Amino acid sequence: MSAFVIDAFEFCRNNGRREGVTPVAEMPRLAADCADASGTISWSIQGGQTRQGYPMMTLSVSGTVQLVCQRCLQPFGHELDSSTVLVLGKDDEEADEIEEILDDESIDVIVGTHAMDIRELLEDEALLALPQAPKHEVCPDTTLVDSVKSEKVSPFAALKSLKSE
Length: 165
Hints:
This protein has six helices and seven strands, in the order βαβαβββαββααα. The protein has helices at about 10-15, 30-35, 90-100, 120-130, 145-150, 155-165; strands at about 5, 15-25, 40-50, 55-70, 75-90, 105-110, 115. The chain is an alpha+beta fold. The strands form two sheets. A five-stranded mixed β-sheet has the order 2-3-4-5-6. A two-stranded antiparallel ribbon has the order 1-7. The longest helix is centred in the middle third of the chain and has 11 residues, at about 90-100. It is elongated.
């Protein structure tokens, strides 16, 4: 059994804790969304229980990934820093019941297993932390954007020329 495969319920019951650093290159779904596979993701996972006694895990991921700016199409480093709480149910039915009882949008309820690969959970969290449209705060090279702007002719310019005739 891999060091990353845990009995999720036992992990929570024993207040387990794991942490580490994983290269982006070892997270294929995340690497596919990045400009390149450089960088590392620092992560931690803590087991415990909710106030109601349900097993829960707190996942945290942080690190820098290379994304492509949607304005200038240049790669840039994006800081990830995300944390989430996952409450575990034994099956879909129990997960739905727990979700209704907790009634908290900030908590995700998933089906736990006795052989859960935490790498998948951590990669999911990193993917969810990515922006939908990544952009620099200020693009370093705006020649591509400027060329598009300069070619644009206002639709009102044609109306103005008709009015002056």
